Amino acid sequence: MRVPLSWLREYVELPEGATTDDVFAALVSVGFEEEEVIGFELTGPVVVGQVVSFEAEPQSNGKTIRWCQVDVGEDNGGVRGIVCGASNFFAGDKVVVSLPGAVLPGPFPISARKTYGHVSDGMIASARELGLGDEHNGILRLVELGLDPEVGVDAIALLGLDDVAVDVNVTPDRGYALSMRGIAREYAHATGAVFRDPAAHEWDDVRPGAGFPIVVDDAAPLRGRVGASEFVVRVVRGVDPTRPTPPWMVSRLTLAGIRSLGVLIDITNYVMLELGNPIHGYDLDLLQGGITVRRASAGEKLTTLDGKERSLSAEDLLITDESGPIGLAGVMGGGTTEMTDATRNVLIEAATFDPITIARTARRHKLPSEASRRFERGVDPLLPFVAARRVAELMVALAGGTLDEELGGALYGEVFLASIELPRGFVSQLIGVDYTDAEITGALETIGCEVSDAEDGWEVIPPSWRPDLTDRWTLAEEVARIHGLDRIPSVLPTPPAGSGGRGLTALQKGRRRVANALAAAGFVETPSFPFSTAAANDLHGSASGDPLPSVKLANPLDGQTPYLRRSLVPGLMQVAHRNLARGFSDLALFETGLVFAPEAGVAYGTTEVPPLGLRPSDETLAALNAAIPPQPRRVAVLLTGNLSTKAPARPAVAFELADALGAVQTIAAAAGVRVDVAQGERAALHPGRTGIVSVRGVEVGYVGEVLPGVSAEADLPGRVYVAELDLDAVLALAGDLDVAASLSGYPAATQDVSLLVGDDVVAGDVEDALAAGAGELLESLRLVDDYRGDGIPAGTRSLTFALRFRASDRTLTAAEATDAKLAGVAVASERFGATIRE
């Protein structure tokens, strides 16, 4: 909202010499955001001059210029010679002259310069050159503005070009501040200055006449809300639309961001900015019959004031006469009843429209307007009568009209303002400031509330211009705003029980360790959108590829991916495809994120929404959580291309399945668990090159090579390796890792053992048996070779393990390490018939 200071002074007492910074400081203190200062960006000397005489001089380029003699006053050098290209002025006219040294908007500095064979000692200015409008209609003749000033006086002050405006950001819930009335009231709240309400009138002064038919026929109200609750019309006859808009009004409208369009339209815009109630004027002689406010019918069209024909929706609220639609209510008028230079009689409309209806219409037709901007935020329902009267008075004063006191009309709506219970102590408890009772009631009465005592508190009726005050919480916010947000103390929140008092939770730490470990291992994190197709969910979400239940979005961003993902792999494959298309062929990607895994036969979702401002009970929270499908957090990796590129004397090394297994081990090490990988099957992965990953016997994910057909379908050439683990499950199985294990300072003893087992025995099971038998001295154990072939019996395999032993209190002997190894071999022999390979 742009606020010209000269206009603001009419409704509130600004201190003498108050600057824009002072006004900004006051408005910021009551919750407005400072934007910028707007001015006319010109400096003098710019004075009133009188054309003494001129000579028309045709030029070789076909243009005719005027060599003028202009009197600018004795103090400004008397009569000066000025070249002018316009021809709409006459000898004796008083005009605006920019003398050498002046700077006009642009910036456009003025100096004495030779042109067309003369030295032009200044410039006769147009309205556009002064910044008063966009149209160039020739020289600005002061007589057309109804002005007859003395020659030589300052034209900047005369035309209001010395005014300045402050621009503040008005939040959507404070629509009352989209007016001079609202901003002046807020300035008064901030400074204690006296506020003069421009809407303060006696009812008899603003009540319209009767006789003009008005009907509201809203057979299909939106959400039970009637489209128009009040509708006021007044008639002004005998207006002269060609009269000039006064300079003070033009300058104020210009600073407020409104272009001057003629005195009649300027008056309606001026009152809208002044009071906050949008106004519309009709050419009364073009109306056919009375006015009916109704919803649009199927197939109806309307040409609005911007010249566009619009197809109407059944939800659109219309202003109509007997000819049909003549305006989109609260948004924009129609072209058939537009006020023009031929208008002589005006019908003034001021109304209260349903905010939701207006907002939907403006968005449906992509037609935001100054009117819709105010109506959709809520307009004071007591304003239409005052606003219509104010417009009528200005049309009488500035356009020469006569108010028809007899003809008019109004739809009277009941204005009901519900009271709000405000318990004593609530505001202080919520805000954290010890306000006295007098401070609380004083702040509420300052903003216009009616406050009365009630049992253990107050009954508060908000003012009609504050539809945003709906409950005790919004009232508490107003108390804090009026008494200064700087009074609210800065207090660190109390950490929740069980969090250790500070820092991240154990689960958060584990997630960060895993992500950091993968990044350190050379993987690039690539978050993707959580949207997928049903086919991708079925293929990657389960081992079999059978159809799975998925969450379908009611309003998806992309109609081709309307489901929430059940796996991270499809997203990684899309990222890989996008990178390959841009020339990046060697990729090691990872992502951590939620997947959505609804269970078959379970109905999710709820229509029970708890009220705002109240903490839901534990039962309500439990019901809401039960209405949400399981959302486990996964971690997934994708590898394709080369691990290392070709170099002199070294060939390129492609990614292998072992690299994907290495990524799984990296995740396990960061999470603090030991994983087991057993051969398995997945619908999207290559048979024989798929591993099922488990921790302590609990399956947590998979790793493997993507089927060539699946890779080709995703436009991924070459081999693609993926792994996906349930990160939440892995971290839960890891337990608490906050305490680091003690490190022994004694040397380790290493030994190897090769065991013969049946080729159907899982190597991981043999490894578990060795670890169980070796006991506490075993520090690490890993499989280093799996041999099948010559030299061993048919149907067997040779598994070679590297074992490392260490004691915390002594140096182990070779005999102790051997005994521990053989104890492990004994358990493996007992479980699987394993024998030491000679």
UniProtKB/TrEMBL annotation:
GO CC field: phenylalanine-tRNA ligase complex
EC number of this enzyme: 6.1.1.20
Signal peptide bounds: none
Location of this chain's protein in the cell: Cytoplasm
UniProt entry tagged with the keyword Acetylation: no
InterPro entries named among the record's database cross-references: aa-tRNA-synth_II/BPL/LPL (IPR045864), B3/B4_tRNA-bd (IPR005146), DNA-bd_dom_put_sf (IPR009061), Fdx_antiC-bd (IPR005121), Fdx_antiC-bd_sf (IPR036690), NA-bd_OB-fold (IPR012340), Phe-tRNA-ligase_IIc_bsu (IPR045060), Phe-tRNA-ligase_IIc_bsu_bact (IPR004532)
Domain of life: Bacteria
Biological processes per GO annotation: phenylalanyl-tRNA aminoacylation
GO molecular function terms attached to this record: ATP binding; magnesium ion binding; phenylalanine-tRNA ligase activity; tRNA binding
Gene3D superfamilies named among the record's database cross-references: 3.30.56.10, Bira Bifunctional Protein, Domain 2, Ferrodoxin-fold anticodon-binding domain, Nucleic acid-binding proteins, Phenylalanyl-trna Synthetase, Chain B, domain 3
Limits of the TRNA-binding domain: 40-156
Catalytic activity: tRNA(Phe) + L-phenylalanine + ATP = L-phenylalanyl-tRNA(Phe) + AMP + diphosphate + H(+)
Record-listed Mg(2+) binding positions: D468, E477, E478
UniProt-listed SMART domains: B3_4, B5, FDX-ACB
Transmembrane domains' residue ranges: none
Note describing how the cofactor binds: Binds 2 magnesium ions per tetramer.
Family, per entry: Belongs to the phenylalanyl-tRNA synthetase beta subunit family. Type 1 subfamily.
Quaternary structure (record): Tetramer of two alpha and two beta subunits.
Alphabetical list of PANTHER family matching this protein: PHENYLALANINE--TRNA LIGASE BETA SUBUNIT (PTHR10947:SF0), PHENYLALANYL-TRNA SYNTHETASE BETA CHAIN AND LEUCINE-RICH REPEAT-CONTAINING PROTEIN 47 (PTHR10947)
Name this polypeptide is given: Phenylalanine--tRNA ligase beta subunit
Gene: pheT
